[in-house]
Amino acid sequence: MLKTRMVAIDKDNPKPQLIDVAAKIIRAGGLVAFPTETVYGLGGNAMDEEAAAKIYAAKGRPQDNPLIVHIHHIKELEDIAEEVPPGADRLMKIFWPGPLTILFRKKPEVPSGTTAGLDTVAVRMPDHRIALELIKSAGVPIAAPSANISGRPSPTCARDVLEDLDGRIDMILDGGTCPVGVESTVLDLSGPVPLILRPGGLPKEELEKVLGHVELDPGLLPGQKPRSPGQKYRHYAPRARMTLVEGPVERQVAEIIDLAAKLESSGRKVGIMATAQTRQRYPVGTVISVGDRKAPLTISSNLFSILRKFDRLGVDEILAEGISKEGLGLAVMNRLYKAAGYNIIKV
Ligand code: TXA
Ligand code: MG
User: Sign of dihedral through CA atoms 237, 240, 243, 244?
Assistant: First the structure.
């Protein structure tokens, strides 16, 4: 068991001494959790096979699920990517730093422990000062999956990291909450049509403005085989049983009121994940608004922390409203499907 040190650090003006301590840990093969604009990452030296192995162990992560490599400057790409696929240059110029992960053919120097044996490496440049300064100071690219125990909701604040990884990692840099709240969009440019392997913080519509037509990996549909290894696992799951209700808002509300009443009368403690527009409508259950339907960023940024909150409140059942799949809504709905284990009611 490690002694996990958690330190507060100002995201707008991070103390160089703190960055330095964290960077030294990374260089020495240790693990540091740090904030990004999407979620907290569990960082280790991407070029060090043993550090990668420690990341898998700390998370309890399946061995076949590759890690995303984080860089602070476009120059670092030369050390890890064999070639830049068509379209990637423009995307990197426009969207980096930001919540976009692109697949590249990997250089032999990137250990196969980092990429789970694949010959591709997923790379992104996070839009967060603490993350960028940490990577720069470490002097190596940093492999970082979300800093949660595998299968749990991703952490969007330092307390959620500590809840899962206390005693399993060396350090947590507490730089406050993550503004986007869902992970990066993972994009594969190797085929004839750009393919989203994981919808995320950069909306499909934004990619289409630059690339034209972009497709969503058909393997993301329930029962199919996704191309991105991580997408096949149950994920983001709260401890409570979760049901997602999809359809016109009025019908969602009616269905949830009905379900909540039935569950409560059978002795189950019910949590309702509502929205700003509907939170006043529920007569029973513990109601929490996830955000404003007209501003999906308010929803994405709260989503994971509210799933964890319901667990802390000890509810047995979570009933969640569906939202529109436009913009960030696509990533939110992807996370809700998985959190609910595809337990979906269409109304
Ligand atoms: O926003 C994010 O991307 C966060 C922050 C910390 O940067 N990281 C993150 O990492 O979400 P993780 O490990 O939780 O998710 C990485 C996803 C997984 O679904 C994994 O299968 C996929 O990216 N992935 C990584 N490398 C890949 C590769 N070479 N080919 C296909 N999918 C890959
Ligand atoms: Mg993850």
Answer: negative
Pocket of ligand 1, candidates 107, 146, 156, 180: which has the most ligand atoms within 8 Å of its Cβ, to mutate? 146
Mean confidence (pLDDT) of the chain: 96
- In single-letter form, the type of residue at position 166 comes to D
Ligand 1 in reach of 228 Cβ (< 6 A): yes
Structure tokens belonging to residue 185? 């969009």
Q: Which amino acid is at 23?
A: A
CA nearest ligand 1 atom 20, residue: 230
**Distance between CA atoms of 226 and 297, rounded to whole angstroms?**
26
- 333 burial class (0-12, 13-18, 19+ CB within 10 angstroms)? middle
For 50-74, the pLDDT digits (tens) are: 999 999 999 999 999 999 999 999 9
| Domains of the chain and CATH, by start | 5-229 (3.90.870.10), 241-346 (3.40.50.11030)
Task: Give pLDDT tens digits for 168-216.
Answer: 999 999 999 999 999 999 999 999 999 999 999 999 999 999 999 999 9
Q: Mutation test of ligand 1: which of 178, 186, 217 has the most ligand atoms closer than 8 Å to its C-beta?
A: 186
198 touches ligand 1 (CB under 6 Å): yes
